[in-house]
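User: Please fill in residues for this 232-position structure.
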């Protein structure tokens, strides 16, 4: 259906209503187009409009060549268009619920090119703000290391190269390290007693100025280490 023709032919339809319908149709057609262009991606349901808020339900991405298996119950994005006149980008909400991500191994890659200069600066041309970030019921399994948490919430704001992280809460994080193959471990070789030497740490460049307002972690469990670490 041509949504523009539908709006013009509808009785007592306001312009903003037509725009809303266009955005809703865009979300549905975009999800269908993404499924065709990227067969690995499947979206069972799309709700809302492109602006101001939309939700994708039952999202699945499986790529055997990359050894990636991802599924999420819902992905939500809410954008405030009023900020564009400032100009700045305002995202009211970014939410992920019920995410399961598995990557048991890394796909083979081509030989890396010659090393390039390290990135020394990251900046945005206009300010960007994300009012609410909520990642709930997240389960990650990467190369045998399992990481999951119940709730992660924060807010972000970036101006130029300055990133501000708001009050951050992480509930019930659990980390289970991948088991090592002890049978392949070589026994330590006997060495003559030598004088201890200073440890030289590599230079780490952070291309952002980061300010963290506060972080609270509740009930952290870390296993596969001796002793078992648990912080409440």
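Assistant: Residues filled in for all 232 positions:
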């Amino acid at each position: 259906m041509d949504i523009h023709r539908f709006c013009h032919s509808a009785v007592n339809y306001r312009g903003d209503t037509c725009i809303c319908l266009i955005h809703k149709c865009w979300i549905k057609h975009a999800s269908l187009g993404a499924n065709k262009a990227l067969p690995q991606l499947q979206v069972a349901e799309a709700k809302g409009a492109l602006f101001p808020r939309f939700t994708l339900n039952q999202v699945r991405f499986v790529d055997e060549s990359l050894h990636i298996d991802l599924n999420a119950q819902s992905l939500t994005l809410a954008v405030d268009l009023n900020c564009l006149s400032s100009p700045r980008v305002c995202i009211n909400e970014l939410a992920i619920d019920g995410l399961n991500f598995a990557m048991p191994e890394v796909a083979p890659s081509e030989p890396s090119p010659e090393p390039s200069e390290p990135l020394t600066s990251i900046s945005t041309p206009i300010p960007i703000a994300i009012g609410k970030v909520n990642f709930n019921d997240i389960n990650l399994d990467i190369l045998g290391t399992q990481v999951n948490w119940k709730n992660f919430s924060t807010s972000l704001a970036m101006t130029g190269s300055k990133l501000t992280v708001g009050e951050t809460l992480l509930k019930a994080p659990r980390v289970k390290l991948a088991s090592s193959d002890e049978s392949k471990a070589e026994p330590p070789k006997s060495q003559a007693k030598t004088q201890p030497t200073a440890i030289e740490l590599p230079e780490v460049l952070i291309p952002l100025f980061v300010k963290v307002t506060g972080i609270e972690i509740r009930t952290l469990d870390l296993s596969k280490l001796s002793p078992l670490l648990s912080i409440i």
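For context: The chain has a mean pLDDT of 80.
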